[in-house]
């Protein structure tokens, strides 16, 4: 049994119709509950909930502070390679894009680590394009231990792997994996994933099951907002989270909110999400699940991040570069997509302190467990 079994019971059109048919009474009923379910979540992400955004934000703020205190964790992505064997319509690393390709060797990685450590980060997210022959397990076996020596918490966002491979990487120091389905609509998924292993919708869908079975501490999920109708896609994320927490209750989970950003061969979003709607979605996830970690990246503008993070966000990236060698060399022509918040890590740290919050550089769970 995997999430695929539950996924087959869900009907996209029925869910979409149910979301858009929610009324103000459904929203008020959801807001009055102490514990909310997926049906309540539909109401909270529906158009009917938009007039209740202020109340949702206040409740989300209170729940977040109760569970996470006045803290915000900071992490930084470390791009190891932009080689990719997939053709995806929305990604700057797509194999069909004519960009310079680079994979960092151990000496180049050490230079990146030096630059990152100088910014105080102790939590790093390793990112690569999906190229299993040149940037696969052989490469990870060599590089993960080198990087883990320097960081308390090590996450990865790479191609989906088998359970045994995740278990091996855990022994080498891997703590977390982010794997986004991009869209839960199979037809739309096929339209945007044209060549390569990423065309396998089901294998990607079942990746969190393999991760949890391998004992990975934290799993990050989400949808690429803009590929499909965002409310329905984000409901599927909530349903996926609900399944994972019921099935693998020892694992921690996080949700991210990536909106399509400009990149090489840029794709226009099918479904545009406004800033106000993103705030609504963040609040809805928090009201559904007070325990889940919610992450906001530098895809979003500094003004938006400054005003929104207290409402429900628990972790933020800062000073991000989306190209291999970006911290030591700064070659922008290799980047995956354009970031929006270009502030330094020190500027983001100071902003957080100015808002009355404490920036956390070390993941609490790993530190607590010794």
Which outline best applies? globular
Strand order of the largest sheet: 1-3-4-5-7-8-9-10
What structural class do the secondary elements suggest?
alpha/beta
**DSSP helix fraction:** 40-55%
Over the alpha carbons, how many angstroms does the gyration radius reach?
Answer: 20 Å
Compressed to H and E, one letter per element, the order equals HHHHHEEHEHEHEHEHHEHEHEHEHEH
Please work out how many helical segments DSSP would assign.
Answer: 16
The average pLDDT score comes to 92
Low-confidence stretches: none
- Biggest sheet details: 8 strands, parallel, barrel
CA(first)-CA(last) distance: 33 Å
Please provide the count of β strands.
11
**What proportion of the residues form beta strands (DSSP E)?**
5-15%
Secondary structure: elements and pairs:
Blueprint: H1 3-7, H2 12-20, H3 24-32, H4 38-45, H5 53-68, E1 71-81, E2 87-88, H6 106-117, E3 123-128, H7 137-148, E4 153-157, H8 163-171, E5 176-178, H9 186-192, E6 193-195, H10 201-205, H11 207-213, E7 218-221, H12 230-247, E8 252-256, H13 275-288, E9 293-296, H14 302-312, E10 315-317, H15 345-354, E11 358-360, H16 364-368
Parallel strand pairs: 1-3, 1-10, 1-11, 3-4, 4-5, 5-7, 7-8, 8-9, 9-10
Antiparallel strand pairs: 2-6
Helix pairs in contact: 3-4, 4-12, 4-13, 5-13, 6-7, 13-14
């Amino acid at each position: 049994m995997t999430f695929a079994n539950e996924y087959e019971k869900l009907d996209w059109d029925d869910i979409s119709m149910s979301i858009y048919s929610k009324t103000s009474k459904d929203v008020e009923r959801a807001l009055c509950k102490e514990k909310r379910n997926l049906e309540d979540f539909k109401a909270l992400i529906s158009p009917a909930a938009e007039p209740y955004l202020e109340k949702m934000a206040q409740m989300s703020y209170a729940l977040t502070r109760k569970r996470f205190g006045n803290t915000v964790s900071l992490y930084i992505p470390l791009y190891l390679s932009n080689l990719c064997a997939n053709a995806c319509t929305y990604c700057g690393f797509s194999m069909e894009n004519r960009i310079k390709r680079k994979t960092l060797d151990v000496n180049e990685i050490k230079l990146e680590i030096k630059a990152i450590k100088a910014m105080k980060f102790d939590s790093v997210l390793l990112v690569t394009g999906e190229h299993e022959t040149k940037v696969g397990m052989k490469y990870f076996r060599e590089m993960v231990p080198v990087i883990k020596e320097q960081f308390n918490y090590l996450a990865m966002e790479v191609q989906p792997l088998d359970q045994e491979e995740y278990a091996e990487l855990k022994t080498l120091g891997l703590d977390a994996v982010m794997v986004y389905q991009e869209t839960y609509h199979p037809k739309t998924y096929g339209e945007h994933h044209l060549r390569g292993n990423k065309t396998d919708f089901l294998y990607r869908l079942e990746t969190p099951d393999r991760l949890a079975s391998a004992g990975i501490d934290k799993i990050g999920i989400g949808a690429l907002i803009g590929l499909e109708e965002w409310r329905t896609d984000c409901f599927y994320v909530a349903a996926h989270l609900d399944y994972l927490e019921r099935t693998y209750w020892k694992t921690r989970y996080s949700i991210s909110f990536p909106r399509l950003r400009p990149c090489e061969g840029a794709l226009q979003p099918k479904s545009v999400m406004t800033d106000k709607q993103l705030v609504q979605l963040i609040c809805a996830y928090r009201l559904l699940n007070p325990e889940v970690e919610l992450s906001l990246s530098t895809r979003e503008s500094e003004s938006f991040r400054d005003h929104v993070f207290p409402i429900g966000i628990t972790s933020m990236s800062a000073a991000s570069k989306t190209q291999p060698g970006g911290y030591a060399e700064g070659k922008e022509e290799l980047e995956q997509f354009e970031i929006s918040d270009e502030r330094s890590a020190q500027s983001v740290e100071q902003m957080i302190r100015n808002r009355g919050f404490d920036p956390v550089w070390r993941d609490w769970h790993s530190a607590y467990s010794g």
